[in-house]
Design goal:
Blueprint: H1 2-5, H2 24-41, H3 55-83, H4 91-94, H5 102-116, H6 118-127, H7 132-139, H8 142-149, H9 152-171, H10 174-181, H11 183-197, H12 201-207, H13 213-226
Helix pairs in contact: 2-3, 2-10, 3-9, 10-11, 11-13, 12-13
């Protein structure tokens, strides 16, 4: 039940059962699609002949993506106002930004991520010439982190992209999908928008001829299924 798993999505008016308004699902899906297109489209507002890994391109895309991410809560607000779905919580709480349940929300995804990357981490530990103590020393070495923070690709892959993608494709889309699809369906539907959004890499790979057409599309399909 939506009421049990997502209490912030409870309708404010007392009713024995939550009734999905007519057209809510279509409007929710279109809103998520528009939000995804806005995120991906912001990457291409800058005209450039440089590849995506060039520092200038990365900095420009940082700007546009951060702007879209800051505006993304407005999509949820507009969706709520247009559909008339009222909740017992604030907009931030609706997006999952709240103190209630904060510790499990941090620990459980972290454990899941560790399990997901356990294989590559074990392979890295086997192939890496460093000892465990060497790895600990590097992790606590300030110069190592300064080097990372000065690398635009590292900032994109480890900081900006994960933060903005989670905000846009999860925090903002789930509240719009749960009332019409339910928690279980919304959890499995939400990543589809994220996966489809990654197909834009095909454009750049074909543009700079970084592989064969079949190889590029196979890679895109694999990335879609993985995400």
């Amino acid at each position: 039940m939506v009421e049990d798993l997502f209490p912030v999505l409870l309708p404010t008016q007392p009713s024995p059962e939550f009734t999905v308004p007519d057209g809510l699902c279509w409007f929710s899906v279109l809103s998520c699609l528009l939000l995804a297109c806005s995120y991906v489209g912001s990457l291409y507002v800058w005209r450039s002949d440089l590849p995506r890994d060039h520092p200038t391109v990365i900095k420009r895309r940082f700007t546009s993506v951060l702007i879209v991410s800051c505006l993304s809560p407005l999509f949820v607000w507009a969706w709520r106002e247009f559909t008339g779905v009222r909740t017992n919580s604030s907009l931030l709480a609706l997006m999952g930004i709240r103190l209630d349940g904060l510790i499990p929300a941090i620990v459980l995804p972290l454990l899941l991520t560790m399990v997901l990357f356990l294989g590559p981490l074990m392979q890295l530990a086997i192939d890496c010439p460093w000892t465990f103590i060497d790895g600990i020393r590097v992790a606590f070495d300030p110069s190592f982190w300064m080097l990372c923070l000065g690398d635009m690709r590292w900032l994109r892959n480890q900081v900006v992209a994960p933060f903005t993608e989670e905000l846009v494709f999860r925090a903002c889309m789930l509240p719009m999908l749960v009332p019409c699809a339910g928690p279980a369906a919304a959890i499995f539907t939400c990543p589809l928008f994220f996966g489809v959004a990654h197909f834009h890499h095909v454009i750049e790979l074909l543009r700079f001829r970084q592989g064969t057409m079949s190889g590029i599309f196979i890679s895109a399909v694999f990335q879609f299924s993985y995400t």
